[in-house]
Amino acid sequence: MADHFTIVLSKVDDAFSIQETKNYGLFIQFNESHFVYCILDYRRNKFMGIQQIKRNEFLHRPEIKTKFQDFLKSVITAIPWLKNSYKSVKIAYEGKKNTLIPGPLFDPNELENYLNFNFISDPEEKALSDHLVLMDNYNVFSIPVATADAMTAIYPHTRIYHLSTILIESILINYKNRINTNRVFLHLREKHFDLMLFDGRQMSYFNSFPYLNAEDITYFLIFVLEQLNINPENIPVVLLGKVDRSSNLSELLQRYIRHVEFGRRNDNFKFSYVFNQLQPQSYYPLINFTLCGL
User: Rounded CA gap, 158 and 161, in Å?
Assistant: First the structure.
C-alpha cells in the first residue's frame, strides 16, 4: 500500500498526541495527486504539525493504474488516526474547474451550465458551489464523482469546499484593514497559480493559470495588468504559497514590479517550532482555513 504515495513533507510537534484529537482541528487540502493536512490544537490555539503526501505516478510501470480511491485508502491505512474524532474537520479540493458568480445572479439549479460556459463538460464530474459571504459571490466548481465519494466515505459529515474559496476569503479577512489601494496577490500551487486583484474595497479580478517556469508566471501577470490598464510599477504584489524569497521568480518579478512582498503568518495563531522550518507564506489557504466562516 505504501507504494501508492510518498511523504514529501512531515513536520509534527513532539507534543502532538493521537489520544487528544477531539481537541484538535483537522484541515485538509487535496486533489487527485496529493493530500496535505495540518493540525490545530484548539486548547492552545496552536498549529501542531503539517504533512504533505504525494501520489506516486508509476510512469515506468504502465500496468499499474492506481485510482484516487486507492491512493486515499493507502494514506488512511498508513496514518489511521486521520479517521479519529476531531473537534472540527475542514476539507478543500484543489480543482482546476471553477468560476465565480455574483450573488444576485446565482441560481443553484444552474451549476452545471455555469461550468459548461467555461469548461468542457465531463459526465464523471459533479458540480458544487461555495458561498463567499464577504463578497456575496458563489464559487461554482466541479469534482470527479469518484473522488468526492472516496473523501466523503471517510468524512461523511464534512462538506468539500474549493481551495480558491478559502484563499479568497482568508485574504479578505487578513488584509481587510491593509487593502486600501490596488494590490495583487499571486498564490503559487503545483503547476498552477492563482492571480487576484483587489481595488481597495473588494476583489475585482480572479483567475488561475498553468505554468512551467517563472517566466510563464511573470508573462501572465504583466499581460493581465496591461489588459486592466494598470502600471506594474504602481501596484504591490504579494506572493503566497509555493515560492521562496531567493527563487528565480522573486528575482524576475522585481525587474518589472516595484513593490514585491511575501505573505506573513497569521498572528492570531501560535505555531509549533516545526513551522520555523517553513516559509511564512507557504500553505497559506490551509493554515487560514479556520478563519473562514464556512
Answer: 10
Give ∠ CA 145-146-149 in degrees, rounded to 5.
Answer: 85
Distances (CA, A) of 115 to 131, 140, 147, 160: 16, 7, 18, 17
Q: What angle do CA 167, 91, 288 make, to 5 degrees?
A: 40
Express each pLDDT in 103-129 by its tens digit. Answer: 999 999 999 999 999 999 899 999 999
AA identity, residue 93: Y
The one-character DSSP state at 172 is H
Spell out, as residue ranges, where the chain has pLDDT lower than 50: 1, 59-64
Q: Say how far apart CA 3 and CA 250 lie, in whole Å.
A: 35
Strand order in the sheet with 237-241: 203-210, 192-198, 183-188, 237-241, 260-262
Residues 6+ apart with CB under 8 A from 227: none
Strands 88-93 and 24-30: parallel
Nearest to 136 by CA among 162, 108, 110, 102: 102
User: CA dihedral defined by 249, 9, 154, 48, rounded to 10 degrees?
Assistant: -100
pTM to 2 decimals? 0.93
